[in-house]
Design goal:
The protein has about 1000 residues and is an alpha+beta fold. It contains 30 helices and 31 strands. The strands form 7 sheets. It has a 9-stranded mixed sheet, with helices on one face. A 4-stranded antiparallel sheet has the order 1-29-28-27, with no helix packed on it. A hairpin with a 2-residue loop joins strand 16 and strand 17. The chain starts with 11 loop residues before the first strand and ends in a 25-residue tail after the last helix. This is CNH domain-containing protein.
Length: about 1000
């Protein structure tokens, strides 16, 4: 995989070192192993030399010391395997296995007859479910062993049977075998032998026996080996192969080029994977030999590879390099020797905390310890490599090496560092990613200490990498001073850590301060949605209002003030008042329930709108003239005030502000009075008394709401409403009839009834008056009649006279004043007496007051209702002056109609008699119908023979005996038909004439 440029970071630091040259037993180190299981404060280091010595070193309190050395064999110590659980060490030397105690207090003991061992590997298992139990594998077939110095003993064991120890070797048998942790794979020639090391119960003794578990045919030239779960991976000069410890089958993972470095295998304990080295490329495979992830490309082919948590440690030629396992990036390079130093070996703790690493040169042992993650992160932050620091923390959190709270802590720390570096947007982005940071931590950047919220601010400077919090103005000023110093130093040739963008294009103080405030606003806006304590909520909302005001974001100020908020009014009212943000202050008062103060502000604003002293930013526009803006602003103030009053039950407060709202918009005044939002309704008497007598429409609208919506049955309100409508109708009638005063005066008179778009009613006042007079029965008609008696409101008078039962006056108005013949005739129909039509005819023919007779109306009346009139009375009533040609046809038709009705009545009478006679005849025929019963006749119900028994017959001709008739009843036949519910008709019963 492609490798990025190395990123400098201190992951490990030197802890201690020891030069083995002064010791007589020293020779070039060939193998190395660690054990930290003796105690938490001490680590044992085992080093095997080229000359066959095993050296024991102790690392304690940052000091490494030589403890003891013991001669194991005459050839190099190839492998050292620490059996920490039992305090023993297994050593491969002289192609044999030796067992020593961990403190080298006893001479090494050679194990069994096994010789010619090339490579040894201990079995490592990840879980029981992924690893087979080797005790279930069949016993090895010793007859297949080649004839060696030990084959005679093996054949002897085969003859003697199991359970017999000979020369320290015990052949495994399923019944006696006990699977332990000390299971190893050995390569002897072309044989791969799996053994278990059985140690004695005495911990101080080196007694041990070897149980042979399995033998597998291997390949020649094995140089390195790893046993993981059920897979044994071996490496030769030709490539890497995988063997199954269960089936013994093998397969090639991949082959190496003809010219390549020696094979090398490294078991990655943390990931439970295996690293295969191909020259300078490390390929990671799983337990099945399948490549996983990407390859790791090292700078050179290493001598040895160690593991330190997330990193691979590669050593060669006096240099140690740490590569990140996931990214493959070289994180740190440490030099501990020069070129040509010789082969170097790296070893790490396999069962410890993973914080210690030991590197051995031919003559030295150097110990390194992992730098704590916090120190690594601090180092990155000091170098201002913020992205790398966050990346490291996130990776540690994913690996389980660091808590989520620590990740939040680092985000907050990075945010503060960026804030003081004037990168406000990035700083707030990190603040928002910190789940543990409290919004109160930014309060000191907004308001100087001491303030109301000083005690809420955590006194935590994190790692002390940034200055104490200060107001944003000071942060910006100090940052600009730092930029100026950096520019001066750059000119002097000194490198600085200031952002190059700031150096090339220095920002202005105003721009930086505005950017800082905008981003702090963004953080506080998000913080409002979190669950905060009440005191912190107060600080967030109040200081947010401060910041809005600093940028003059009027819309946001008003939106915050009008919404549910935790702002402290005492902290803001002076600020908003002095800065002229009265609308915001009014919204704030209203949201806090301080309705009286809010209404007082809206009243002042409405007055200032009308005088042109104050403008609403929401409606301020150069394209509109001042008068339009003033009207819009006044209505806006009235609307906001009305919304407050609609929910208020304070009657005095409502009536106090009703007047100025009504002056601006009567519709809003009516909404205030008729609101259903308030819990307790207003007293109608108090409201009516408080309404200005000039605001007639408001009074009428309120009374209409009481009567129609609230179903008030108070006759006082009904009468007052009728009188008010009548007065308005009279004024409207006078204004319409005064043709000489249509100018300015007429406009002024009608202005109170029609305020442009704010007109309350859509229908004319006379129409409303007429509808109410007809629909209501609770007003006093005489009182209304007294008011309109001398006016031209004839239809209204007719309605009132009708309420009073004065039929003659109603007919006179309808017929003579309004000349509405249809309405007059309809009224006569409602009266329901024929004399009403005669009375109406008299009015048409003799209208009185010098008015000409209304012959056409009279003829219309005779045409429509002449049939119901007495012809003699009509003839007596007709005026001698009535033209004969006008009335002759009508009178003739009336007489003919009378004769027609008479004869038609006679015909109907005779037809009725004929129908009655037919019905009687049909009934007689039915009753005289005969039914013959003989000996074979059966009852339709019980099927009994009737004979001479009594029987009954139903209308549907069913016949039953008398007994069944008594049981069935006379209305229900044996078929189930109920003649009371389902009447039966026969064709003979119907009258056909």
């Amino acid at each position: 995989m492609a490798k990025s440029e190395p990123k400098s970071r201190t992951v490990v630091e030197p802890l201690a070192q020891l030069d083995l040259s002064p010791h007589s037993t020293s020779s070039p180190i060939r193998s190395l192993s660690l054990s930290s299981l003796l105690s938490d404060s001490q680590t044992l280091i085992f080093a095997g030399t080229q000359s066959g010595f095993l050296i024991l070193l102790s690392l304690s309190a940052q000091n490494v010391s030589f403890l003891k050395g013991v001669l194991v064999g005459n050839s190099p110590v190839e492998s050292i395997i620490v059996l920490g659980e039992v305090g023993k060490v297994l050593v491969l030397c002289d192609e044999c296995l030796f067992l020593v105690d961990s403190l080298l207090t006893q001479p090494p003991k050679k194990l069994s007859f096994l010789k010619g061992i090339i490579v040894i590997a201990k079995r490592i298992t990840s879980s029981e479910s992924e690893s087979s139990n080797l005790s279930e594998i069949n016993s090895v077939n010793l007859s297949n062993y080649p004839s060696t110095s030990s084959s005679t003993s093996q054949r002897l064991l085969q003859k003697l049977g199991s359970g017999i120890r000979a020369n320290g070797v015990k052949v495994k048998e399923q019944e006696q075998h006990r699977q332990g942790n000390n299971v190893f794979a050995l390569v002897i020639g072309k044989r791969l032998i799996l053994i278990e090391l059985v140690l004695g119960r005495d911990t101080d003794s080196l007694n041990a026996s070897v149980v042979i578990l399995k033998e597998i045919q291997c390949i020649d030239g094995v140089k390195t080996m790893v046993w993981f779960n059920d897979s044994i991976i071996v490496g030769t000069a030709n490539g890497y192969s995988l063997f199954s410890c269960v089936t013994g089958q093998s397969g090639v993972i991949f082959s190496l080029p003809d010219i390549s470095s020696l094979p090398f295998l490294k078991l990655l304990l943390k990931e439970r994977k295996v690293l295969l080295l191909v020259d300078n490329v490390g390929v990671v495979v799983d337990a099945h030999g399948q490549p996983v992830g990407g390859s790791l490309v090292f700078r050179r082919s290493p001598d040895s590879i160690g593991e330190l948590l997330m990193y691979l440690v590669v050593v060669r030629d006096g240099k140690m390099e740490l590569y990140h396992k996931s990214s493959g990036i070289c994180i740190q390079t440490v030099t501990f020797g020069g070129e040509g130093l010789g082969q170097c070996i790296a070893a790490n703790e396999e069962g410890g905390s993973g914080k210690l690493l030991v590197v051995a040169t031919p003559t030295k042992v150097i110990c390194y310890q992992k730098v704590p993650y916090e120190e690594q992160i601090k180092d990155l932050l000091r170098k201002k490599d913020f992205k790398e620091a966050i990346s490291l923390v996130e990776e540690l959190e994913c690996e389980g090496e660091m808590s989520k709270e620590m990740l939040s802590f680092v985000h907050a720390q990075v945010g503060f560092l960026l804030l003081f570096d004037l990168h406000f947007e990035e700083a707030v982005n990190h603040f928002l990613q910190s789940e543990t940071m409290q919004p109160s931590e930014v309060f000191p950047f907004i308001m100087r200490d001491p303030n109301r919220w000083s005690l809420l601010v955590p006194r935590n400077r994190y790692w002390g990498l940034h200055p104490p919090p200060a107001p944003l103005e000071d942060v910006v000023d100090n940052g600009l001073m730092g930029i100026q110093r950096a520019i001066f130093l750059r000119k002097a040739g000194v490198e600085t850590a200031i952002d190059d963008d700031f150096l090339s294009n220095p920002p202005t103080r105003a721009d930086l301060l505005e950017l800082a405030i905008k981003n702090i606003i963004r953080y506080l806006e998000v913080s409002r949605e979190k669950e905060l304590t009440f005191s912190v909520k107060e600080g967030v909302d109040t200081l947010l209002m401060y910041l809005y005001r600093a940028l003059n974001r009027v819309h946001d100020m008003e939106k915050l003030a009008a919404s549910e908020n935790s702002c402290i009014v005492e902290e803001l009212e002076t600020l908003l008042d002095e800065s002229g943000h009265l609308r915001t202050l009014a919204f704030l008062y209203a949201s806090k329930g301080m309705s009286s103060k809010a209404l007082a502000i809206w009243r002042v604003l409405a007055k200032n709108y009308s005088s042109g002293l104050w403008k609403d930013p929401a409606v301020e526009n150069d394209l509109h003239d001042d008068s339009t803006d003033a009207i819009s602003g006044m209505e806006n103030a009235a609307m906001e005030a009305s919304e407050i009053l609609e929910e208020s039950s304070d009657e005095d407060l409502i009536l106090q502000h009703l007047g100025w709202i009504a002056d601006i918009n009567p519709v809003l005044a009516v909404k205030v009075l008729t609101s259903d939002k308030r819990p307790n309704q207003l007293s109608p008497d108090e409201v009516i008394a408080a309404i200005d007598s000039k605001k007639v429409e408001i009074l009428q609208s309120y009374l209409q709401w009481l009567i129609e919506d609230k179903d008030s049955n108070d006759t006082q309100f009904h009468t007052l409403y009728a009188l008010s409508l009548a007065k308005s109708a009279l004024e409207t009638l006078e204004a319409a009839s005064s043709s000489d005063n249509v100018g300015t005066r007429g406009v002024e008179q009608t202005k109170c009834y029609d305020f442009g778009k704010n007109s309350i009613f859509q229908s004319p006042v006379r129409e409303r008056l007429q509808i109410f007079l007809q629909s209501s029965d609770l007003y006093d008609p005489e009182e209304v009649l007294d008011l309109i008696e001398g006016s031209e409101l004839w239809l209204e008078k007719a309605i009132l006279y009708r309420k009073l039962g004065q039929e003659t006056l109603v007919l006179q108005i309808l017929a003579l004043k309004l000349e509405d013949s249809e309405a007059a005739e309809q009224y006569c129909a409602e009266i329901g007496r024929p004399d009403a039509y005669m009375q109406l005819l008299d009015m048409y023919l003799d209208p009185q007051d010098g008015k000409e007779p209304m012959f056409k109306a009279a003829v219309r009346l005779l045409h429509n209702h002449g049939e119901s009139l007495d012809p003699l009375q009509v003839l007596e009533t007709l005026s001698p002056d009535m033209p004969l040609q006008l009335a002759s046809d009508t009178i003739l038709r009336m007489l003919r109609a009378r004769l027609h009705h008479h004869r038609q009545g006679q015909i109907v009478h005779n037809l009725s008699r004929a129908v009655d006679i037919d019905a009687r005849l049909a009934r007689l025929e039915e009753r005289s119908r005969h039914v013959q019963i003989n000996d074979e006749s059966l009852c339709d119900s019980c099927q009994a023979r009737l004979g001479t028994k009594l029987f009954a017959m139903y209308p549907d001709d069913s016949i039953v005996c008398y007994k069944c008739f008594r049981r069935q009843g006379e209305s229900t036949s044996v078929t189930g038909r109920d003649f009371k519910q389902d009447v039966l008709f026969k064709p003979g019963w119907l009258v056909m004439r």
